[in-house]
Structures are given as structure tokens and as C-alpha cells.
Amino acid sequence: EVQLVESGGGLVKPGGSLKLSCEASRFTGFTFSSSYMYWLRQSPKKGLEWVSTISSGGVWKDYAPSVKGRFTIARDNGRKTLYLQMDSLRIEDTAVYYCATDRGGKSRGQGTQVTVSS
Predict the structure, then answer these.
(1) In a 3-state reduction of DSSP, which class is residue 40?
(2) Cβ distance 64 to 51 under 8 Å?
(3) What SS3 state is found at 78?
(4) Is the pLDDT of residue 26 over 90?
(5) pLDDT band, very low/low/confident/very high, at 29 (cuts 50, 70, 90)
(6) What are the residues whose beta carbons fall under 8 Å from the beta carbon of 69, sequence distance 6 or more?
(7) Who contacts 37 (Cβ-Cβ below 8 Å, separation ≥6)?
(8) How far, in Å, CA of 116 to CA of 113, rounded?
(9) How are strands ordered across the β-sheet holding 18-25?
(10) Residue 27: what pLDDT?
(11) Do residues 70 and 85 lie in contact, with contact meaning Cβ atoms separated by under 8 Å?
């Protein structure tokens, strides 16, 4: 079990950028530096959607086709923090963004709202 707290969301115009952070704490049976981590997002239209995955060491990364080339996932194991750099934001990127310890989102934080609007 782990507590995940996302931050960095906000209102941005199309084409703009935001950087999300997710701090992990209060571990029970979980080691951040040994675990793959995930970013998910949820919107009323699309439901819960996988965005990106990063391996435990941060070398291997994967992205949903809709964000590939625009978003960059990263992690700092020393700080137990996960990041998502989002560039060239589009209106359809509007959603609540979650970090999670599983791709299905069973263990995720409270989320941070990202709104892309002109």
C-alpha cells in the first residue's frame, strides 16, 4: 500500500505546457524504486484511460498513441516522485490525471485536474 499525491494541474491554453508531479509516501509492502509507475487520466467522454508507463529504473517508457511525442514521463527514485511533462496540449487532453501503481488504476492518488481551453 502507498499514498500517492498528484499536483501541478491547472488551466492552460491549447499548445501550452504543464508538468505534473506525483509524490509517493507511507509505504506498506511497496518499494517505489522497484516498481513500474503509471499515469492515467479520466474524462466524462472517455472514462479511465492509460497515458504512460515507466519502468522501475526509468529507462523503459511507453505512451498511449494519443500522447506520444507530446508527453514525457520521468521519475526520481531518490525523491520517490513521478513526473509527467505535457507539451503541445490539446483540448482533448482535458481530464483528471492520476498516478498509479498499476495500469488499471486500482491504487491511484486523488488526481489533479488539467483543463485545456482557449
Answers:
(1) strand
(2) yes
(3) coil
(4) no
(5) confident
(6) 63
(7) 22, 53, 54, 75, 82, 99, 100, 101
(8) 10
(9) 3-7, 18-25, 81-86, 71-76
(10) 77
(11) no
- 3-state helix, strand, coil split of the chain in percent (to 5) is 5, 50, 45
Tell me the residue type at 63.
Answer: Y
Which residues are within 8 A (CB) of 88 and not within 5 positions of it... i.e. 6 or more apart?
A: 15, 17, 70
pLDDT given at position 42 = 97
| The residue type at 20 | L
Amino acid at 51: V
Q: What is the pLDDT of residue 15?
A: 98
- Judged against a pLDDT cut of 80, whether residue 13 lies above it is answered with yes
Place of cell 519502468: 55
Joined together, the cell numbers standing for residue 82 give 513521478
> What span, in angstroms and rounded, lies between the C-alpha atoms of 118 and 27?
40
What are residue 34's phi and psi, to 5 degrees? -105, 5
Backbone angles phi, psi at 33, to 5 degrees: -70, -10
Is 51 in contact with 67 (CB distance < 8 Å)? yes
Note the pLDDT of residue 78: 94
